[in-house]
Amino acid sequence: MKEDIQNLLFEEIKSSKLKGITKASQIEVFEPKNIEFGDWTSNICMKLAANSEDSPRQIAEKLIQNLNKVDWITKIEIAGAGFLNFYLASEQKFLFIQECLKQKEPFSIKGKAKKKILIEYVSSNPTGPIHIGHGRGAALGSALANLLSKAGCEVKQEYYVNDQGLQIETLGLSLLLNYLSLSGEMIKLPKECYQGDYLKTLASDLKKSENNKYEFILPDKLPKNFNDWLVLVKKELPHFDKLGEYALTKILDGIKSDLEEFKTFHDDFFFESSLFIDSKKSEFHKTLKYLSKKNLSYDEDGAIWYKSTDFGDEKDRVLIRENEAPTYFASDLVYHKNKFDRKFDEMINLWGSDHHGYLPRINASLKGLGYDSKKLKTIFIQFVSLIRGKNKVAMSTRSGEFVSLKKLIDEVGVDAVRYFFLERRSDQTLEFDIELAKKKNKDNPVYYIQYAHARICSLMKELPERGFNYSNSEGSKALLSLSSDKENELVSQINSYQQTLERCFDKREIHSLCFYLRDLASIFHSFYNSHPILDKNENSRNARIAVSLATQAVIKDGLSILGIVAPEKM
């Protein structure tokens, strides 16, 4: 219907020779929040006035002269400065509801380009379990993939694994010191090491599986700092590097398991080390060679620098340090080059908010390599804090005092965690109220939405028990009898589902869908409590069952995008 109104307006604009619009899709048509303002509204007259001597209201008066002749529109009103409010014929209001009743899976996002899209998300360092901050990114990434797939896009979900460098050595040392402590040694981990009980568990498992393979005689005077420990263990253990690999593998296995429990499934785990395989034949080496050939890099003070200031960055960036070790920036540059070389139409990064200042560097590097940086969209995810009662839960990743995603899931459930992570804009900080997430009442939005779905399922089970029959064909015929304010409000909310999906798709966001489902559930519960659905009057009963089933279908579809169960009973 939205497209019909857009096309109708566009044809009349062309006939009237008004300037400022070249195609129908440029005309904004939306459903008003208040049903008193019609079924659809457009602000097109305000836009047209920018290229006309007439006021928006004068333009509106000219347009509706012919628009009123369309039989499926009963009335067009001019409101305010020049808004056009469209009132549809009754049968038009129920087309989408009838579609819901006819098809098992009627929902899709139509009229959108079917792109090949890469979403890279979570990508947390495999040095510890994923915590709640990573979980927010996991919920958003997987839900976004579900949404884009509805438009027919080919979506690939990728996790970038930082599996080399000092952090892996640090992980290996952290594991070893915990391992040695199991023999009774009083070892205090340097502050640079990773902390947390998960390392103690890994150390215990290692000791059992490797039969004291990593034991060695410690000096009477133990090292005092991180670097001295590294020197000692590398000297005593020629296979020290295996410890980092062991810990990384075990932790990554745990991450994959936690993500799967959280209904997050990546198509690929892309290892940073793959960019460096085969030395001079590696992607990293080829990229450095290319930059040098194009005069985009230079040597200074023993390091290799990228001329990122030539492409809008605030300063040039180091690619290779004086010790010949590549920087994180260099790895990211090559990784993003790899993304572009795989010929995606669009690439989406989900990054923590602490990476905000990093984006100009990446964009600058891509421009230098000759790529269109507009194909790369970065969504920043703000921090999550936990609230228990009135108190904020203290967390510190470095000290090991963090709440893992798994612990939160175990306490409040997957569905609640996913919804609470998704119901706010990703660029807003999130306070996760643990006690609210566990409530079984209308205060908990995800429970309230799921309860609406279960309530409708229960209603349909009750139908034959009350001696009533129902068919979708009879329900469709009876829809015209819906006339009360609450019935009309529910119909209007159901009809806005497609528009909500389109808006979420266009903006690459999810939180609007959460708001929509919460409002739909609230409107349905209000309708349910004020109208006897299993009414003795057959016509009223069939109509109300039909609109209830449409509500059920929309809730189920919306929750599936969010990765949340639509239960049949609660």
CATH topology of the largest domain: Rossmann fold
* Mean pLDDT over the full residue set: 91
User: How many structural domains can be distinguished in the coordinates?
Assistant: 5
Number of strands: 15
- Low-pLDDT windows of residues: none
State which percent range the strand residues make up: 5-15%
The CATH class assignment of the largest domain is: Alpha Beta
Strand order of the largest sheet: 7-6-5-11-12
CATH architectural category of the largest domain? 3-Layer(aba) Sandwich
The largest β sheet comes out as: 5 strands, parallel
Task: Tell me, briefly, the overall form.
Answer: flat
Would you kindly provide a written description of the structure presented here, covering whatever features stand out?
With 570 residues, the protein is of the alpha/beta class. The chain has five domains: 2-89, Arginyl tRNA synthetase N-terminal domain (Gyrase A, domain 2); 117-161 and 259-380, HUPs (Rossmann fold, 3-Layer(aba) Sandwich), CATH 3.40.50.620; 166-250, no CATH class; 384-437, no CATH class; 445-562, Isoleucyl-tRNA Synthetase, Domain 1 (Orthogonal Bundle). Helix content is 48%, strand content 12%. It has helices at residues 2-15, 44-49, 56-67, 90-93, 95-102, 132-150, 166-181, 197-210, 226-236, 241-261, 283-293, 328-341, 359-368, 405-412, 414-422, 434-437, 445-465, 472-478, 485-495, 497-507, 511-530, 538-562, and strands at 29-30, 40-42, 73-79, 83-88, 116-120, 154-161, 268-271, 297-300, 303-306, 317-320, 346-352, 376-381, 384-388, 391-392, 430-433. A five-stranded parallel beta sheet has the order 7-6-5-11-12, covered by helices on one side. Strands 1-2-4-3 form a four-stranded antiparallel beta sheet. The protein starts with a helix and ends in an 8-residue tail after the last helix.
